[in-house]
Amino acid sequence: MEQETAAQATFEALGLSEPILKALGDMGFEEPSPIQLRTIPLLLEGHDVIGQAQTGTGKTAAFGVPMLEHLEPRPRTVQALVMTPTRELAVQVAEELTRIGKYKRVKTVPIYGGQSIDRQIRALRFGVDIVIGTPGRIIDHIKRGTLHLDQIKTMVLDEADEMLDMGFVEDIEFILSATPPDRQTLLFSATMPDPIARLAKRYMRDPKVVTVNREQLTVPQTEQYFYEVRGDKVEAISRVVDMEEIARAIIFCRTKKGVDELTESLQARGYLAEGIHGDLNQPQRDRVMARFREGQVELLIATDVAARGLDISDVTHVINYDIPQDPESYVHRIGRTGRAGRTGVALTFIHPREFTQLRLIERQIRLRVRRRDLPSATDIVEKQRELLRDKLVQVVETGNLGEYRRMVDEMAEDLDPVELAAAALKLHLEGERAALRNPAEDEFGDTGAEPGMVRLFVNVGRAQGITPADIVRSFAQGSDIPGSLIGKIDIYDRFTFVEVPKDVAARVMESMKDSSIKGLSINLELARRR
């Protein structure tokens, strides 16, 4: 029986409608969580359900999906009511139900104390399908005659034990008594104290009980950090990858589309990256995994489902490009590094609006995830210099420098050995033309770039099918610089502007001389100030 359940652990197998499946896909839900897998079929069949589950287990979708499936397409009247203990949870539930029901054009409204009641009255008069609210404000609207519950088909008590602790039991009973007796009732509670059990016995019809226990969420061998990203997330992860000493990393995205897009973007920047998700057939998966295990691929980009069951040693980093939906997923992800007594590193990228989800994860794992600042372009340049220094030390230690030593000995009779070594490095990195440029010519002037950057003009653009990925790939590979160093790219019809750090501008201009992009010969020159 367990094997059959595992084999059918998809939303499609639950028989959901296409609009709901499409919305879940957009949200990154690849398969049901345990509470969803066990609850959704019971609710679709019309049973009342008692769910013992905590926040972060996916219970909103567990009751929201069947609730939305049961909604009738008719002039908007309140068909479902969700009671929550706090305004924060009411808003959170309303937002998630709106996302799940977006292709059914479902209208939800949260009502709670502290918000203008006149605004809520206007929303209710306009017509809504689902109301989510706190008990006190719901009763206020019932008594004003602005909320009518005679058409309620589904009633949800979310975090019932919290409402008990806040003294809402009498309010809950008042509200339940105002709904039709043939409604479907769902009660979710992390614990089941006697008053909640009595409430269920009185107001629910032969309820089915679903219990989901949390796992122990601890990852002792993993250093955990997060980066707050307000701009381009691809640029952010590129800079972090350039700064980290990554031997082998798994990067998690929420959706299959996200995996494809990030894989393409990182490959364009010159990284050894491959993607893996459910749309790949088994031979394709095997080829990607073989390349990853053999070190031909450094960055494996995956969805949660695709990464399940992968047994890969020596993963130095796990990177959450998209923050996971729940704490369990977070722990499963980062548990793929720090194995066999080694200390791994887990990095999570979040937008400002995702801090609430990060704090929920921290509470469940009982550990503070430390903040790191995103590296700057200057940091990346300094890192490249550090790597060059390390390579030079390795070459010295390896030896076999006889012929080159004789050349240096001869030249050192007339030149300072330090100056000679610096000139050799400059010639190697910048090329002959840039290395021989007079100091006066090194001043790029005001090209209209951001501080510390140089703005370059390229004579190809949108009309030639040029994309930002083409620019990044050509500049990074042609100039042997990290793709993350490349700044703002503005593509116009017949030309493009590209910003690069001043420290590497000479190298870029020299190395890109007489080069091409997508088979098109290019001319590269300093841009004029805008």
Q: Any overview of this molecule?
A:
With 530 residues, this protein is α/β, with parallel strands linked by helices. The protein folds into four domains: 2-211, Rossmann fold, CATH 3.40.50; 222-375, Rossmann fold (3-Layer(aba) Sandwich), CATH 3.40.50.300; 378-439, no CATH class; 453-526, RRM (RNA recognition motif) domain (Alpha-Beta Plaits, 2-Layer Sandwich). The chain has a seven-stranded parallel β-sheet with strand order 3-4-2-5-6-1-7, with helices on both faces. A seven-stranded parallel β-sheet has the order 10-11-9-12-13-8-14, with helices on both faces. Strands 16-17-15-20 form a four-stranded antiparallel β-sheet. Helix 13 links the parallel strand 10 and strand 11 (299-302). Helix 4 crosses helix 5 and helix 15 crosses helix 16. The longest helix has 22 residues, at 377-398. The model is unreliable at 1-8 (pLDDT under 50).
